[in-house]
Amino acid sequence: MQEHVSDPLVGTLVDNRYAVRSKLARGGMSTVYLATDQRLERDVALKVLHPHLSADENFLGRLGREAKAAARLSHPHVVGVLDQGNDGRTAYLVMEYIKGHTLRDVIAEKGALPPRLALALIDPVVEGLGAAHAAGFIHRDVKPENVLISDDGRIKIGDFGLARAVTTSTSTGALIGTVAYLSPELVLGKPADARSDIYSVGIMLFEMLTGQQPFNGEVPIQVAYQHVNGTVEPPSALVPGLAAEVDELVQWCTSNDPENRPVDGNALLQELRHIRTNLTDAELDLHPPAAAAGGAMARSQAPAAPGAPGQYQRTGQFQDPGGQQNPTEVIGRSNNPTTVMPFGKPAAPAYPPSQGQHRYTGPAHPGAARHTLTPPGDDVEPWSPPPPALGKRAQRRADKEDDRARARAAATPARTLREGSPRRRGILWIIVLVIAALLATGAGWFFGMGPGAAATIPSVANKTVAQAQQLLDEAGFRSTTKDIFDDDVPSGLVVGSEPAAGAEIRKFQPVSLFVSKGPQLFPLPELTGGTLDQAKTGLNTAEMALGRVTEQFHEKVPAGTVLSQDPAPGTAVRHGTPVSLVVSKGPEPIPVPSVVGQDEKDAVDAIEEAGLTAEVAREEVFSRDVPKGAVVSQAPATGTLTRGGTVTLTVSKGPRMVKVPSFVGKQATDARKALEGLGFQVRLNNILGGFFGTVRDQDPVNKEVPEGSVITLTVV
Questions:
Q1: Which residues contact 609 (CB under 8 A, 6 or more apart)?
Q2: Based on C-alpha coordinates, what's the Rg of the chain?
Q3: What's the fold here for domain 657-715?
Q4: DSSP letter string over 15-74?
Q5: DSSP E strands: which ranges in 409-507?
Q6: What is the pLDDT of residues 142-169, one digit of tens each?
Q7: How far apart are CA 428 and CA 309, in angstroms?
Q8: How far apart are the first and last CA of the chain?
Q9: Could you write out the three-class secondary structure of 670-700?
Q10: Is CATH 3.30.420.10 the right assignment for the domain spanning 13-96?
């Protein structure tokens, strides 16, 4: 039964910002956690370096510089580096969190993949590497565990936070990599470049096509030895019927000499897509044999030895019980006390038998203790790495040659039965010498002036096919053409040649001309009718860029909806082309004009001219101040409405008519109070000072007058 041990970082807050929620994986250099960035409220992948690396100040300084540089690398197929820092003894990298699974999970579940699926999965990986190589970065640890596949199908390559910039020295310090995918030059301690990543991609593609890795070994040093001294056999040796172009692609990537590999990810991407478009459906959909298809699953289910800290499987992969299948290993110099797999002098790894016998004395788990290579002595049983294993086809050819050699040896007598005369032997020797002289003369002509003479390939870039072929013909070469996509060279012109210009080869060797088909174009998706967020998602999926976003009012389309795009949907453009969008702001608001006091007709005209609808209330109202037929009030009185909005107008009937009663002979105080109660205004005209306070006269009296009229009282 497996014992579950709680991780001390789970539930803590790193650098007062990242809340660690759970452990995702553990590798040879770090442990990855799911964390929440509390400042930005988003999930991130928190990679925490193991303590022995966190204590190395030089390593942390170099990692910090490389992480800052990698954070500037932005590409749809590269996991972004978001942050880097130290919190006490905790050194960490913060990366984009991709919810999903890895390419390792796909291989473990399905085993060998059909070429169509394998090439489709490797395409975005190579595209991401190509962008990194163009920006001056190398990955150094390409493997299925670092290829992340999100739940929505996006494919990204991760761990660029541990890569080195090309401008940084790569010939000193610790060597970062996974032994199953390590390039020969990295094993030899030589500087790494983009072609080192290409080698790892070739090993990974071999594993995807066959379900197993090309080199096996009981210990990592055996696998490293085979990388340097062995040759990757064609995948068709394990998957019969595989297209020859796929074999050539894998062996091109995995050549021992970096000069014979694609120069970078972009060069490989062009050839990869050329092969994908030229293979037939039958070649692309070739189903591997049952043994190959189920091989990876069978290996992943093999039980570990009881009590063993980890299982090293038949494919040369280290299985860490708490982490990933191929953890990144640190291969350092002999003076590094924390190395997992020291190689002694970088220029002589793997210790071939001619340099002495060694044996592996370390434990199986890469993190359990230091691995050492012990020189042979009296008390040590010597060990030498086995020679690289031959493929099935190569082994069958070697067996047949051995059988033929034994048959020829059995048919040849040990001694001649007839000695022959000395004169005859002399004539035969003369004939042999003449023939040898003729052959030497012919060979000298062939390799000196004939088709076997060495010549330098001329530069043919940016020339027409006819011009390029003429230059090659004049130099004595035969040429063939291959069409490829190229973003920089116009269609119909030559991009370059293979071998490249300046290379010296024999004239009988063929030269391939790569002819540009122009940039590869992709149709733009339909973005109108959806929201701005949906349009952004569509652009990201199509690998296009968001251009200028403008807003305009629209009476019928809701706010936030995309009205139009430029270029139009279906237009064929390159990846990364910016697409401008026009987004609706909804109906335009219209200020409500004030028409109170205006004649009814004039008020209605003013409302309609503003783009609104005027509605006159059925009932008119009395008004002392507003004449009959004019607008007394409106609703709404102020604010804004959308076009066609309704403004209700209330029209005046004029003032109310009220009969004025007579107050002659009554006290002026009572008369004034009563008249004001009826809505009139009262003016007093006092005679003799109005001593008695009696109303002597009134104007008007006993007639109907408008409400609010002035009533004059004469008081004595």
A1: none
A2: 45
A3: Trypsin Inhibitor V; Chain A (3.30.10)
A4: TTTEEEEEEEEE-SSEEEEEEEETTTTEEEEEEEE-HHHHT-HHHHHHHHHHHHHHHT--
A5: 454-456, 479-484, 494-498, 504-506
A6: 999 999 999 989 999 987 755 453 334 3
A7: 72
A8: 122
A9: HHHHHHHHCCCEEEEEECHHHCCCEEEEEEC
A10: no
* Other beta carbons within 10 Å of 388: 20
Assigned CATH topology for domain 589-654:
Trypsin Inhibitor V; Chain A (3.30.10)
Active site residues: 141
- pLDDT digit string (tens) for 515-545? 998 888 889 999 999 999 999 999 999 889 9
**The domain 100-301+311-360 belongs to what CATH superfamily?**
Transferase(Phosphotransferase) domain 1 (1.10.510.10)
Query: How is residue 597 written in tokens?
Result: 């006091």
Cα–Cα distance measured from residue 408 to residue 446, given in angstroms and rounded to the nearest whole number: 32
Distance in angstroms (rounded) separating the CA atoms of residues 32 and 92 = 9
Q: Characterise 484 by phi-psi region: left (phi > 0), alpha (psi -120 to 50), beta (else).
A: beta
pTM of the model: 0.45
Q: What is the pLDDT of residues 240-292, one digit of tens each?
A: 999 999 999 999 999 999 999 999 999 999 999 999 999 999 999 998 876 45
Q: Residue for token digits 């009826």? A: 678
The beta strand positions in 558-598, using DSSP E, are 562-566, 572-573, 578-584, 589-591
Provide the token pair at 130. Answer: 């190509």
**Helices (H), ranges, 557-599:** none
Domain residue extents for the chain: 13-96, 100-301+311-360, 454-516, 522-584, 589-654, 657-715
What confidence tens digit (pLDDT) does each residue in 100-124 have?
999 999 999 999 999 999 999 999 9
- DSSP codes of every residue in 52-63: HHHT-HHHHHHH
> Residue 86 pairs with which residues in a beta bridge?
91
Alpha-carbon distance of 8 to 692, in angstroms, equals 107
